[in-house]
Structures are given as structure tokens and as C-alpha cells.
Request: fold
Amino acid sequence: MKRMADPRPDALPRAETSGAERAGAVLTVDLDALADNWRDLGRRAAPAICAAVVKADAYGLGALAVTRALAAAGCRDYFVSSIDEGIAVRSALGAPSALAGRPMRVFVLSGLARGALGDFARHDLVPVLLSPDEVARWAGYCASHGRLAAGIKIDTGMTRLGMDEAAFRALAGDGTLARLPVALVMSHLACADEPAHPLNEDQRTRFAALARLLPGVPASLANSAGIFLGAPYCADMVRPGAALYGLAARADAPNPMRQVVHLKAKILQVRVVDSPRSVGYGAAGRAGAGSRLATVAVGYADGFMRRLGDGGGGHVGDCLVPLVGRVSMDLSTFDVTAAPEAATRTGDYIDLISPRQTVDDLARAAGTIGYEVLTRLARRIHRLYLGGG
Reply:
């Protein structure tokens, strides 16, 4: 006897669902807003060149898509942390390697990894040299492989990476650096997000004096916040990161950058509690009788920080919906009592990053900074890209 097909809707054949439909959380990245931010920062820094910092997978947003969007907007210089990041970005840039008469350069900020000197040449990467030892090793490599560009980093107050002032003066004075094709001399501001901090001007004046020891070599000091300190800080090249991605460069003024990201999490279940009860691990949350609770598919494994359970929230439309209880690995629960029922059903979404709650807002709720919020976002969050040329 012929078997009848199961008439239930879920049993009917259908096209495979999209990644966004299957995902518990969706991160939308507006590449046009990102490109606009790069252009805005370039106008503020002009006549300095505006580069882009795309380390840490472009602050968690996806280096492949971000780099290509910035290249389409006209960006020619990129900064990454490691060789592997540099290889990925160089691959994303593809051919041709030069547009508008100037080559695209990828600077690697972490210096020379031992045994990896050839990787810089093979993948057309520019190492940023951090010490006299690295300068000597790169000079030795260039002696047998041709003159290959490098950057030089000086520590002027961060006390992190870079050679100290005395070492740099010695290398500049004995002609060592003149024998290398130095593409850039750079330093990094420690307190640029605090405009009145005295270390800003101290670093600027010290760096300017040191950069003059390499006449004709472009100089770079300003990060995102440094651009907003004014023209003297911009030198020949600026290196924005955070502001590209919509983060506020300083806390004492309105943020002029366009928002780049939107994060939403899918509601898996809605329940109305009939009596006061605890919610989540450790019974840390409380819900009153009649509360309507929505549990969504996002947790600290997605980068939605556990400490947000102490007072974070999201939005349904214009309605603020507070977190209830602790954020767990895969799930978070929100009190949606005040939100419209029609917008808080299974399969609907709660906005976690949006114009109503920016990355910086979420960071403040978690007691951290926007950099950490973005770079924590896990790869299992589905990414959608808008625009990008």
C-alpha cells in the first residue's frame, strides 16, 4: 500500500533555511557607515593620510568584508597585530596591489617573529620594528633579499611596545636607519581619550623631535582619539580603529561617528509567571507575579558578557526590556512585560546593540569599553553585511 505523505507543515519539503534564520543571534554590519566614518576621519585629519586599524578580525566585525569595503572607499594603509592577520588582510585586498598610483600596504605591529622574516616578503607585509635587535635582523635579511620596507616604533610614554628614545637616537645617529627603506616612524598615545591629560602634549613634542631625526620619513602618532586632539597630533598619517567601527573616541563630547553594528537575539520561549519566583542560575533574578519573560539565544559563549546580568537590558522597538538573572552560556532572559505582545513572540528578536543602545552604552552597562564588547562577539553569531561598494 502506498504510504501517504505526512501533511504536517514541518514535514513538508522546503528550501534550506538561511544562516540568519537558523541563528540564535544576528550581527548586522553596515559597511557604508564604516566607509563614511573612514572618510569623516580622513577629512578631520587632512592633509594627513588616513589608514585603518583592522586587527583582531577588524575588531570582531570580519576583516575580509571590512578591508574590502575600506579599499573600495579609498583606504590604502592597514594595520594588523600579527603575521597571520596580515596574510588574511593581504589576501582580502587581492589584485591589483596599487590603486590611484599608491600601493596598498599592510603593517604588522607585533615586530619580527623569529623564523618568520620570509613571510613578510612572501606576503608583501611591512613589519613594524620594535628594538635595535629587530632592526639589525631586518637589515641582515635585506642585505641578502633586497631592500624591503619596514616601520619603526618608538615608545614615547605608553611603556609597552617600541624602542626607547636613547636607542632610537643611537640608530638614527649612526646611520643604521638611513640604510633601511623606512616607510613609517610611529608611536602611540596613552591618554588621547582624556584631552586635558598632560602626557598627550609631552608625547607629541617628544615624538616630533625624534621623527625629525629621519627627514623625509612619514610620521604617525594619532589613533582615533588622537585625531580629535587636533592637527598637530595628526602628523603625516593617522591610524583610527575604534572610531571606524562607530565607537566614541572620547567620553567628554558627543560621538560624531555613524553607528556600524546592530545585534539582535532571537526569542526562544516566552512565559508568564503566575507567582513571584527566582530566575536563572543562583536564583539571582526575581520576577513578580504576572511578569512576562522572554528567553533569547545569546549568552557569554556569544560574547554577551555575564556581568550584564547585574543591570543590562535590550530593546523591543522603543521599549526598554531589562535582563533578569544571570547571563548563562547560551541564554539570557528579559522581562518583556512592558513590550507589545505582538512583538515578543517566539521567533521575534530583542535588540541588544541598536541606535537605542549603542556599543558604548552596552559597554558602560558591563563596566568595560566598547573595544571589548566588539572583539568578544563570537563567530557563531551570524553576520550580515550591508553595502560596502
The chain has a mean pLDDT of 93. The domain at 261-386 is CATH 2.40.37.10 (Lyase, Ornithine Decarboxylase; Chain A, domain 1). The longest strand covers residues 261-272. Residues 31-45 form the longest helix (15 residues).
